[in-house]
Structure formats: C-alpha cells, structure tokens
Design a protein that fits this description.
TIM Barrel, 10 helices, globular
Length: about 270
C-alpha cells in the first residue's frame, strides 16, 4: 500500500501500472554500484520498466558483478540490458549472436538494437532483431543518429520504425543521447522542436509505441502535455525517476496547475448555470 493510499485520490487514474503496455520508463545507468542499484530498486522499481547499462559500460564490469546486478534488477521486476552502442560493436565484429548468448548467460533480459553510430542496412537489422527474439530476449530498438550533423531521412525512419514494430519489438526509441541537447527533436539548448516531433509521428501508425529519450524536465513536460501521462520515456537519470513519475501523476506544479484550473472553470460553469 502506498503511504497516502486511501487518504488522497489519484489525479491521474489513467496512469498505467506494471505489467503495462504503454507509459514505459527506461533509466540510464552509467555505472551504478550494487548498493546503489539495490537502493534504486527498493525506492522505485514499481515505476521503472527498463534499466539500461548505457554505452559500452557493461564491457568494463566483471562477469560476476554483472550477474549480481542483473539478479538485483530482475528480482525487483525490472528488465536490464546493455546500451545500443555496445550492440553496434558486436555487429561490427560480427559477433552479435555470441553477444546475445552472453546477455542470457549474465541474466540480462533485453537488448537494444540501434545504428546511432554504425550504418546497419534494414535487412541486416531485421536479422539481428530476429536473432535476439529467437533467444527469448526482449528487444528495444532505436532510430536516429548520435551525430547532430547526420540526419536520417524521415521516410527511412518511418520504414524502419514500422519494420521493427512488425517484428514485435517492445518499443522504438527516438534518439536524443543522454544530454538531450542538439540531437533528434531537441535543439542545442534542449528545447523541443515541435516540427521535428510532427514529422516523426506523421509516418507512425501508433505513436504510443515510441519511447522518447527526454532526460530534461522541460522535455518531459512537453511530451506529457502532448501525448498524455502514458507516453514512454528513456534516458531518465536514476535520481530523477520519482520526480518524473510525479510529473506523470500530476503531483508537480507543472502538471498539477492545469488540474486546478480545470476544476475552477468547472465550478464556475456550475455556478453560472
């Protein structure tokens, strides 16, 4: 039971709960120790869906350490996986099948498949996704480039997203890196470029299947106001996970104020009638 359950009513009853089909949250892990990982799970496992050991950081950790970390995370009901850049290295070395086997051996439950740095043809991407799914791994894919000077044509992005979803991936991430600045739908200051968002979703049958990398508060507020409380987010810093959930559930000023204003207008309308 939540601490105030039965006393206060939820302001976002539509917020999905685990196991959920939308409204996922992925936390970015740049090197949490076992104690910090356990603390994070104790505090927020109920609102975390995926923990990503980002970039190639998983390669720098001892075998037994990763196994112990994976056990902590999965026991708490959260999926854990290495970053997409690490997968790109495995593809470059033509070892992605062995990479997937090692993920399973370590107790990891998912993989991210991206081509943010490496060019991976769509037909090869399909083969890689199938190889991961055949092994029982959950698959999250990503579209977009990490270099702001490289742009993926929207037609190709739409084709890739639909292909990935047809193959049964969990979610498709829209690239924005861990900074959330100067990449994807965000400008150099981290502000949202609405026209870029419009162009991406214009060619996607179900935008709820997109996960937006949005590490900054202003980005999260924009996405929640535009797509609702059950929009999916990625690259959320561990210390911000509960703050994000409070935004989703209208328990921060930025998303609470509209509730107050709506209630006031409703009351004024009743009095006027």
């Amino acid at each position: 039971m939540k601490a105030w359950e039965g006393v206060l009513e939820s302001l976002a009853p539509e917020r999905s709960v685990k196991p959920r089909k939308d409204g996922f949250t992925m936390v970015i892990d740049k090197g949490l120790g076992l104690s910090h990982t356990q603390d994070l799970m104790d505090t927020a496992a109920g609102v975390i869906d995926f923990l990503k050991m980002t970039f190639g950081t998983a390669a720098l950790l001892d075998y037994d350490f990763v196994k112990r970390k994976a056990a902590i995370v999965t026991t708490a009901g959260v999926d854990i996986y290495p970053g997409g850049t690490f997968l790109e290295i495995a593809v470059f070395q033509n070892k992605y099948k062995e990479y997937f086997d090692r993920c399973l051996e370590l107790g990891l439950t998912a993989v991210e498949i991206s081509d943010g740095t490496l060019e991976i043809p769509l037909n090869q991407r399909v083969e890689i996704i199938k190889a991961a799914k055949e092994r029982g791994l959950k698959v999250i894919t990503e579209v977009g480039k990490k270099d702001p000077n490289e742009k993926v044509a929207f037609e190709l992005m739409h084709e890739t997203i639909q292909s990935d979803l047809d193959l049964g991936v969990e979610e498709v991430i829209v690239e924005a890196r861990e900074s959330g600045k100067g990449v994807g739908v965000f400008d150099a200051s981290g502000a949202v470029d609405s026209s870029e968002v419009d162009k991406i979703i214009a060619g996607v049958e179900d935008p709820s299947r997109l996960m937006w990398e949005a590490p900054l508060k202003n980005q999260q507020i924009y996405m929640i106001k535009r797509f609702g409380t059950n929009v999916s987010f990625g690259n959320i810093p561990p210390d911000d996970i509960l703050a994000l959930e409070a935004l989703r559930c209208r328990m921060r000023g930025d998303t609470l104020k509209p509730v107050f204003l709506s209630a006031i207008k409703s009351e004024e309308k009743k009095l006027g009638s």
